[in-house]
Write the structure tokens for this entry.
Amino acid sequence: MGDSQLISVVCTSCGAEYATDKLLGFCTVCGKVLYCVYDIEQVRASLTPEQVAQRGRGIWRWHELLPVRHAENFVSLGEGSTPLLACARLANQLGGGSIMLKDEGANPTASLRARGLAVAAAIGCEYAVEAISVPSLGDVGDALAAYAARAGLKAYSFVPHDAATTHLAAEVASGAYTYRISRMEMESNQLVRALGQRFGWFDVSSLREPYRIEGEKTLGYELAEEYEYNLPDALIYPLGSVIGLAAIWKGWAELEALGWLGSHRPRIYAIQTDACAPLVEAFKNGAAESKTWDLGVDSRYPPLRLRRQIGDYLALRLVRESGGRIISVSEEDIATAQLELARTEGIYAGPEGAMAVAGLKQLRHERIITAAATVVIINPAAGLKEPQIVSLDDMPPIQAG
Ligand SMILES: [Zn+2]
């Protein structure tokens, strides 16, 4: 036995409580997101930050605060403990100050999703499922394929018709059953859900089950640890999926309950592309939830095409609570920021990380974030996964003779 202190699972919206003896999805009462709850008193009595620090690297050193009860089911490819990189040259370009970047592209399968899928695959083993499935706009399908293979489970992923071949290759190589589907099917998600229900797959769609977020919250734990439990002034998070941001926030709340972290939180600045910005609109309008984005334009970056997310209310709530905001940047600014980050710091980020840098540039320009504020940027994934977005038009030609 491991010593997970999971005691129940609770709805983040209506408060309905669920027992932990069976595999759970979203709230069957109201359709919203479920969160795992731990016996914090028990963890506090048996664990200290120093003990966690002495356990080496990776996400499983936080196992008391993860939902997997049996240590033999832990699945790992070395996820977590990613670099926190000082970006002095980028800071100089933006007028000085302290800018750090947490590089989740250094995870196995080159994204933050590795943390979540490690836990989801382990949960699949705990509850003896045969197959796990996910619709994937980008990196989650790659992580699903790798961690399912590692755990001996079948994997089914459904990707957009124009998904980068890098994703397809990674998934097929790991033995996943990967299907390219139309954008309409991708967005409605009905095909994936119907197949999952018919064949009994464990659907690990973002925030439609309460386990993936538990892996991703270790990103929040690590940041707290790396900042010696004294978090910076501002966090820049690209949306993309809200699961990682909700996860960080949940992780910090647990550390505060443990008495390891104070009540200070960074102001959260969440960034979207202006080609698909439902959360920016909801934030501006003071709405508790977003409306499905339907303005007839779309992002050239598949991972940013999220018109509506089940966890939208969690992101809106936490950004407001932090005193931050949700802003949009242009697709051109994202492309420019990707090259600037790679050329000034050697960090080749995916479109989400590039969007975060573009957002920080805008916030600095508008003096919403000044050079006096300490800043951490989250880069969720490496740029290698979406190579089609770098223009090769300005490569110098080599002429023979
Ligand atoms: Zn509910």
